[in-house]
Specification:
This protein has 518 residues and is an alpha/beta fold. The chain has helices at 11-15, 18-32, 72-81, 96-99, 117-122, 127-135, 137-147, 159-168, 189-196, 198-212, 226-241, 272-279, 308-320, 322-326, 359-366, 400-405, 424-438, 444-461, 466-483, 487-491, 493-502, 513-517; strands at 2-8, 35-41, 53-57, 60-64, 88-91, 175-180, 216-222, 257-263, 303-307, 329-330, 333-334, 336-343, 349-354, 376-381, 388-390, 414-419. α9 packs parallel to α11 (226-241), α17 (424-438) packs antiparallel against α18 (444-461) and α18 packs antiparallel against α19. Residues 425-470 form the NADH-ubiquinone oxidoreductase 51kDa subunit iron-sulphur binding domain.
Amino acid sequence: MSIRLFVSRDAGAVAVGADEVALALEQAAAKRGVAVEIVRTGSRGMYWLEPLVEVATPQGRIAFGPVTEADVPSLLDALASNTPHLLRLGATDEIPWLKRQTRLTFARCGVIDPRSLDDYRAHGGYKGLEHALSLGSDAILNEVTASGLRGRGGAGFPTGIKWKTVAQAKADRKFIVCNADEGDSGTFADRMIMEGDPFLVIEGMTIAGITVGATKGYIYIRSEYPHAVEAMNAAIAAAKRGGYLGDKIGGSTYGFDLEVRVGAGAYVCGEETSLLESLEGRRGLVRAKPPLPAHHGLFGKPTVINNVLSFAAIPFILAEGAKAYADFGMGRSRGTMPIQLAGNIRHGGLFETAFGVTLGELVDDVGGGTFTGRPVRAVQVGGPLGAYFPRALFDTPFDYEAFAARDGLIGHGGIVVFDDSVDMRRQARFAMEFCAIESCGKCTPCRIGSTRGVETIEKIINGERVSENLALVEDLCNTMKFGSLCALGGFTPYPVLSALKHFREDFVPAPTTLQAAE
């Protein structure tokens, strides 16, 4: 009898002991003479249950977790004898947190061996590319446009329009660039998909290349993601061996090749033109627009730049059709969004669902409230440049326009939760300090404004001329918002102004008893 086990090799799982658990399982099995096959997968995204161990049964996979090295002997004994175990969670697919999701992009993540091309194909991989090869450029563009897919990196720009612009551009060479410089606080979806289903990203980029006439692509990954770099390089090598990259991909007349480039970790290189500068070997400075990258991008050639999740959504759209994707969501926000729950939260992880779920449902119901058990006071959505929302705004649907109407951003889909012990003055100061540290320095509002912002908020914290300095901060935010060259300086005012608006009591000292009497 052989027991087939699945243990994540995702960086988040490894950080809490997944490698040690996998090794302990091997050693314990050898000691007992039990035949065990361990498949290292990506993560299911339920990080509070990692390391998660799954066992294959005729009825489907059964999950156990979180498993420590100390749990391994008793777990293996229970599996060998088919007896109950305290860490048994039941059928993995029936775990409520996982079952209520709509997993289109992350359907294979945590299920397959991310290093195996055969496993990817056995679970529906490359069906999208095969269909795309039979359609041709115009029909692919129609499908992508009809799906309503918008850039998942944060800007929300319609993907079909971007691809069509590059497809129509006249040039001797074009490029596909994947922005994997994921740097927002509380975000990890790009890393998860690259580590858990890297062929999906490759397939999406290959379809993009066929569509716009590009033969070369680059995946720009920050150096803090060594596991993702390794996974993507391994998958690219496997795709080349399998005939899905290089000349005559999939037996067609099309050629497309990919290469991973590692960035130094500058936050501003998440901005597409700074990324291009870095790819070309220069310092990551923002370029003035126009010209747009779609016309004058990498090495001066027309370039499609999309986020990891944008490319990862493409294979489903081509395999199942634009309508199957567009049927999910609301308004102009179609399809699903991989939402990342982090910060002071009980159930942190990745939750993929259709647009339209409210912020309150995500934090209170899905996330289970705070880890500390204290009341939720604020959530920041959209990374360090996102607005802070109080509980009064928890009825906001997760939708681009709904968040914009309340001066917020969806960004890359990260939600960071804070309980009632948070000091919003210091959160506002952090936003300005983050901008000051990460600014490329090219424009004055961002470079100087953020530094002055830190100084002014420090004065407010110290009780110096609070009213005058609050007015100065608001004026400074307006200058940065409308005068900065890119979104780093332009969006930094969102967390600052939202903190001032919704948590004013943290900035204005309460009147003394004598003042109140007067």
